[in-house]
Amino acid sequence: MFIHRTVLAAMLSLLSVCAQARDYRYSDAHLHYVDFFQESEGMKPLLQAMDVGRIDHVLISGIPVAKKWHEDEPKRPRYYAGDDGGAYWYSATDVLVADAVKRLPAEQRKRFHPFLSGFNPNDKNSDAHIRRMLELDPGLWQGIGEVFTRHDDLTALTYGETPRANNEAMTRIYHLAAEYDLPVLLHSNITSKRERNPLYLAELEEPLRNHPHVRFIWAHAGTSMEIHRHQQKLDFLLPTLERLLGEYPNLYVDLSWSVLQPYLLDADGKPDARWIELVSRYPTRFMLGSDVVGKFDGLREAMQAFVPFLDALPEKVARGVARDNFLAVLPRQRQAAVRD
Hints:
Blueprint (H helix, E strand, L loop, with lengths): L4 H16 L5 E7 L10 H10 L2 E7 L3 E3 L19 E3 L3 H10 L3 H4 L2 E5 L9 H11 L6 E6 L3 H6 L10 H13 L3 E4 L13 H10 L5 E3 L6 H7 L5 H11 L3 E4 L5 H5 L8 H9 L4 E2 L11 H6 L2 H6 L2 H14 L3 H8 L1
Parallel strand pairs: 1-2, 2-5, 5-6, 6-7, 7-8, 8-9, 9-10
Antiparallel strand pairs: 3-4
Helix pairs in contact: 5-7
């Protein structure tokens, strides 16, 4: 059969591109086993979603608050922002995570890295609670978080004082994290919905400076979809990250979904060259997360949405961001177990 040489050349070019395509393995550095009602699809659907999505490892945590179904609401809300009902700190979320992980066969359990989150970050008793949890299950917990401090409307809905990353209760927790060599996944918005400046940055930067032996993972790089809805793109985010990463070697950045657009990718889905340069300059300091809550059918799509950005990075850097950088922030004892 005759094939025109231009068609043949195009076919060969396509085959070459396919041969060079990267197949990533992933670590999901931000996954919630339960939703805001402390409910979950369970481990079986999660494991199936991980296998389909080529996800080898997962940071698994609960949700530190529970959404109230208020007496005045005839219909149960589906999300914390579904109505004006409040939310309250819920420590049993860690019990649910621990039970789910401990029921797994040993080989599967190695893929899960539980983080403690069920405590009130305004309560100076919380470090004692965390210590008790660590002592109840020696070796189970591998980090602390996601800690909810500044968190959009959830902050206003949660009963009690406004949590801050630099308050005295959190300071006590950071000392405990350093003692146990535990990384801390911290949600601390960089600003509010209306202020076009890094309004709350000092609340993050003070712990970074005062606790150099604690590895901080900044959830969503301080962004959120609610901030984007009101402000679109924060022009000061990139230069702020450049400065923080240069000054604080204990800062790591979770690039979960609210960072993907409009930061890593533009409106046309093309990688932003400035972010490519930043991640390449600090190749071990960024990681990916899905931030799914209790339902796992979208896990594969959430992780693969980063592929255009990963493909624009040098291959070694891309594989670190996709999988290995998260494993490198785990407690040193745990890192050895993962390697083995």
